[in-house]
């Protein structure tokens, strides 16, 4: 296996904007040569998409921050408190933190195109870029494993209802959230040691700064660099996706069997129907996660297996698209909750549109 750069695995676009790589696309168009893995076509796509990526990501961040604040407010109301909703609240907090960090990063990197290289690669912004990259890795890791946790939680709840109150208690949910936050930060310690800020001079002699591998990462035949690649491309990407795929299939099977049994019995308790609606909502959250995260994990793995050609000509050219998919995953849960949970809708409407909600409820009651 060929050794490949790791920048893209702490931030999907970090190395795209290093000064050394800034002329890659221009040289490609000038040479007009055929590249491995259709690299010339992907580079042309990237050069067009990058014009819109900053504005799309900025819109996703603004919407996502607002949506996750609403998620937190609604899910923490007294009537909404439950172990599952506590974990969903933990996910909302992590997703909101990711987008709060992405907001200034996106504006500086993609939208402020008129600034000079000296300002773009100043020490302050480079230090923020390093912080942003590490901070978002930690928060995204938290969100990922809390998503796996809520999937396991739901599977246990519907598969072993007799033990659900013990296994899936509020106390255990709070401990699961706290441990995920703590251990995710600890788990990412190797990546904190892998990168640092370096000073360099441009061709004009100006002093600028960039994020690059640390001396520790280069020691022992780049052992730390290689270890981080496999940890953050496989453990934090593919392993959760594989686990969620299996759990999602299990949830679908349970829902199918319940629906079939309900048809045979010609009806069931309203409580079972409520649990099934909750399961379908959580299943939608899991499938969205798989749709947005699995491509990035697969491309990361292929980069490690196929080497630098695939990384340079494929992954580097679709990094921004993977970034946008991650933003969608962090922002859209509010829409899923509103569209699939009547309890969430009612709580949200009662909090933010009380007059309209009470009028609508009175009309429904009168018609009945």
TrEMBL record:
Segments crossing the lipid bilayer: 50-74, 86-105, 125-157, 178-200, 229-256, 281-302, 314-336
G-protein coupled receptors family 1 profile domain residues: 67-337
Keyword annotations: Membrane, Transmembrane, Transmembrane helix
Top-level taxon of the source organism: Eukaryota
GO cellular component, one term: plasma membrane
InterPro entries (alphabetical): 7TM_GPCR_serpentine_rcpt_Srw, GPCR_Dmsr-1, GPCR_Rhodpsn, GPCR_Rhodpsn_7TM
Pfam families hit by this protein: 7TM_GPCR_Srw (PF10324)
UniProt key word Metal-binding: no
Signal sequence range: none
Family statement drawn from the similarity comment of this UniProt entry: Belongs to the G-protein coupled receptor 1 family.
Name used for this protein in its record: G-protein coupled receptors family 1 profile domain-containing protein
């Amino acid at each position: 296996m060929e050794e490949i750069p790791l920048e893209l695995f702490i931030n999907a676009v970090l190395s795209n904007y290093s000064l050394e790589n800034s002329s890659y696309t221009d040289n490609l168009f000038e040479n007009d040569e055929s590249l491995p893995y259709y690299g010339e076509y992907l580079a042309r796509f990237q050069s067009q998409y990058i014009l819109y990526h900053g504005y799309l990501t900025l819109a996703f961040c603004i919407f996502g921050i607002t949506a996750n604040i609403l998620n937190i407010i609604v899910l923490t109301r007294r009537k909404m408190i439950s172990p599952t909703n506590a974990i969903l609240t933990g996910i909302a907090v992590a997703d909101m933190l990711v987008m709060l960090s992405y907001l200034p990063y996106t504006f500086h990197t993609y939208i402020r195109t008129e600034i000079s290289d000296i300002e773009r690669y100043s020490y302050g912004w480079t230090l923020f870029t390093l912080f942003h990259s590490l901070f978002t890795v930690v928060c995204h890791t938290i969100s990922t494993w809390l998503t796996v946790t809520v999937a396991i939680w739901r599977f246990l709840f519907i598969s072993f209802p007799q033990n659900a109150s013990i296994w899936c208690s509020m106390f255990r949910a709070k401990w699961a959230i706290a441990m995920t936050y703590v251990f995710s930060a600890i788990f990412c310690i190797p990546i904190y040691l892998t990168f640092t800020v370096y000073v360099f001079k441009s061709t004009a002699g100006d002093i600028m700064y960039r994020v690059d591998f640390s001396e520790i990462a280069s020691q022992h035949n780049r052992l730390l660099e290689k270890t981080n690649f496999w940890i953050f491309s496989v453990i934090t990407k593919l392993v959760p996706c594989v686990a969620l795929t299996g759990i999602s299939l299990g949830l679908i099977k349970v829902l199918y069997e319940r629906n079939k049994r309900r048809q045979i019995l010609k009806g069931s308790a309203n409580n079972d129907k409520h649990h099934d609606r909750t399961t379908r909502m959580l299943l939608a959250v899991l499938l969205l996660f798989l749709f947005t995260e699995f491509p990035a994990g697969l491309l990361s793995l292929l980069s490690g297996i196929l080497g630098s050609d695939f990384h340079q000509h494929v992954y580097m050219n679709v990094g921004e698209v993977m970034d946008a998919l991650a933003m969608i995953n962090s922002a859209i849960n509010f829409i899923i909750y509103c569209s699939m949970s009547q309890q969430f809708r009612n709580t949200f409407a009662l909090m933010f549109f009380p007059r309209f909600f009470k009028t609508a409820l009175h009309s429904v009651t009168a018609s009945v």
